[in-house]
Amino acid sequence: MKYLLLPVFLLICITACKKDNDTITDGASLPKQLNYLTGRWKSYASYYSYGAEPVWKPTENITYVTFSANGEYTNSSNSTYDHFELRATDVDTTLRIYKEGQQSDTAVFLISINENTLVLANRMCIEGCGDKYVREH
Q1: Residue 33 buriedness (CB in 10 A; 0-12 / 13-18 / 19+)
Q2: 4-57, pLDDT tens digit by residue?
Q3: Strand partners, 54
Q4: E strands of 14-72, at which residues?
Q5: pTM higher than 0.85 for the full model?
Q6: What is the DSSP code (8-state) at residue 43?
Q7: Cβ partners under 8 Å of residue 52, min gap 6
């Protein structure tokens, strides 16, 4: 009897899982991601992990970033970078921000985005670090 209940239990667990369709993290919807990304964003939280579970804290120095549909990028706290691109794989999408006039020397972030929230996780942090942004209207 218990062997019959196990498949039923597993089926219930699998079908009960629901994916949040508003948040895009994979490369399958690159045009939708670019559409969501375009605009001005205000930082409101950040985290840096030293190996433990990351804890989001309110941003101390608010930063504004702007992404345009033609690939231009501005950052209120860093004028070194001026353009960006999204790169998609089967697993995730990365945001690459390039220094002025260059296509190498980049900052690379894993991106999670929906209509009003942007999360950028820096790929260079070993233990993890990232920033959350809210869309400016």
Answers
A1: buried
A2: 544 444 444 444 444 444 444 444 456 667 788 999 999 999 998 877 777 899
A3: none
A4: 39-48, 57-58, 64-67
A5: no
A6: E
A7: none
